[in-house]
Design brief:
homodimer, 244 residues, alpha/beta, Alpha/beta knot, Helicase, Ruva Protein, domain 3, seven-stranded parallel β-sheet, 10 helices, 12% strand
Chain lengths: 244, 244
Amino acid sequence: MLSNIRIVLVQTYHPGNIGASARAMKTMGLADLVLVNPRCFPDSEASRLAAGAEDVIDSARVVASLREAVSDCVQVVGASARLRSLPLPHYDEPETMARELVASAASDPVALVFGRERFGLTNDEIRCCSHQVSIPANPDYGILNLSQAVQVLAYETFKAWRQHPDSHYRPVRPAADRQPTREQLDHFHAHLSRVMQASGFLTQPHARTEAQLQALFSRAQPSRKELSLLRGLLSSLEEPREEG
Amino acid sequence: MLSNIRIVLVQTYHPGNIGASARAMKTMGLADLVLVNPRCFPDSEASRLAAGAEDVIDSARVVASLREAVSDCVQVVGASARLRSLPLPHYDEPETMARELVASAASDPVALVFGRERFGLTNDEIRCCSHQVSIPANPDYGILNLSQAVQVLAYETFKAWRQHPDSHYRPVRPAADRQPTREQLDHFHAHLSRVMQASGFLTQPHARTEAQLQALFSRAQPSRKELSLLRGLLSSLEEPREEG
């Protein structure tokens, strides 16, 4: 699925943006980069900013027109900072775009197209697209740097892929500490209660105060290890302190 | 709400990353930047990459410790590339983190903390945080550039704010073309049917074929203008063509 998703950069002016875009792609599992008439490429700035994603740079194809870049694609989404008056279906939310793009990518190549840093895409280039998407931003300052826009849309694409039932994505999680049983919690509550009374904080069992503190500890969801830690602290508080 | 959200960058090595982060912040409506012991600041690289977000750079505070940067905050989320074994509550999804951060920011300052480019945050600095968040990424290459991480988390924060009932966010939408009425659609369907029969494509009314084509046009959701366009085309197709 992700391998069917192509990133196309049209007439990029700064080679650094190509490098940073390649890095952004790779962090989000994308590897198919096509450059339409880049101003300077290959370039040391592109390689420098790719920082570990040089493989994406090295395998990038360079073509002369957007038509050539997307001819085999079944869905072509043009990323555009400004809403155009062209009647192309428009995604208000990158999240929605990403879900549909990933679904289309299950069986055929698709593309996300980014325009020039200053001028975006021409009307002719938008005609090569099936959809437009814009990234909702600050109305007073809403133009993201090109490689940042690539990062955001790649991030939403990777998220949509992770959440897709067919991706079989398994997140890397640290081993979860075991949770205590109800019985262990009951013992802890009883211990806490004894210490509160022995200290003079409660002169007699006080259901409301005890319930409130028990709820606080419950919200913290202590693991078994942490509960032991608390029990140990309570035991120390119960022991008579050394004099002098 | 957004004004209560602070971005804290700890010991940033490359001033360019500070500038790019300021730009990323501004595109997503954030303006409160605090720098803990930046290596080089102020710096021309920071201003150059801020590209229109110099106001964020100019109003950035510089402090000596993370503790100082977040002492007034009620929620402090440390962005960390690697899952740590420290038992700090951890957000798997930036989206979830952003919703809770925006909710906390309704009444008090909160902070999103980013560490050093190479080394992230120290254990002591993580102790200044109430939560951790990581950006799910390619397991083989998952470290985003610092300013890209700021962009992604700022984007999710802005999205959570837009979707929050109290933000009163109104998206900028182009004026929608008016939709046709059922009657206008009926006229169109009848016209299409006449042309299909007159052309010899259908020798008699054929409900299934007609229904299929009508459904196709419905999926396109033609505006009134577009329906007129289609009617005009159908009329031209009905006229006898000039001979010779």
